Amino acid sequence: MNIAVYCGSKIGLNPKFSQAAKDLGSWLAQNKHTLIYGGASHGLMGLVADACLQAGGNVIGVATYEIHNMEHWHQGLNQLITVDTLSQRKGVMSEQADAYIALPGGPGTLEEIVEMISWARVQLHHKPCLILNIDHYYDALQKLLTSMVEQEFILASNLQLVHLVNTIADLDEYI
Q1: 8 A C-beta contact, residue 39 and residue 138
Q2: pLDDT confidence tier of residue 131, bands split at 50, 70 and 90
Q3: Family, per the entry (predicted)?
Q4: pLDDT score, position 68
């Protein structure tokens, strides 16, 4: 299975985030999944790719030419796809992935996973959308989604399109 992973280009302050990225990379390789990610060599992105590669996994990076030209792309990948824009990067990752997983990250990470949830909501895809809620990082997002239901901006059934899980082992239930 091809799995798109969205995560930070920085590691963040909580060491549990780095450990989760490494554990996810290993889990992907051990379960014979292909990692599709943003192509960077640093931050949580670099950690998940390194761990997947070290465990014998297949890693596809999708990077913009700007990142490629700045040499921030991971040079040990099995495949690197370069595109002009971030929108194109999201499109390639979405098309190639059979499932989507978000680790902690910033606004780009949030945008990417929320877009996949939105696309599932309007039935543009029927792929699992999972959020690794490491050390309660995404609790506020879960509360916001619940508020959207309470305020009738989305249906309660829409909450079934995204699964917040606390551990890597919990992914097995959905993938």
Answers
A1: no
A2: very high
A3: Belongs to the LOG family.
A4: 59
* Rounded CA separation 61/79 (Å): 6
Q: Looking at residue 43, which CATH number applies to its domain? A: 3.40.50.450
Mean pLDDT value across residues 6-27: 98
Residues 138, 154 contacting (CB under 8 angstroms):
no
The β-bridge partners of 79 are 60
In this structure, are residues 64 and 85 in contact, taking their beta carbons and an 8 Å threshold?
yes
Total domains present in the chain: 1
Q: What is the pLDDT of residues 78-117, one digit of tens each?
A: 999 999 999 999 999 999 999 999 999 999 999 999 999 9
Taking only the tens place, the pLDDT of each residue in 30-89 is 999 999 999 999 999 999 999 999 999 999 999 988 765 665 788 889 999 999 999 999
> Measuring CA to CA, which residue among 118, 136, 142, 105 is closest to residue 21?
105
Name the 3-class secondary structure at 57: coil
Q: pTM for this one? A: 0.95
C-alpha closest to that of 32 among 54, 52, 49, 6: 52
Q: Domain span at residue 163?
A: 2-173
For the chain, the distance separating the N- and C-terminal CA atoms, rounded to the nearest angstrom, is 9
Cα Rg of the chain, angstroms = 15
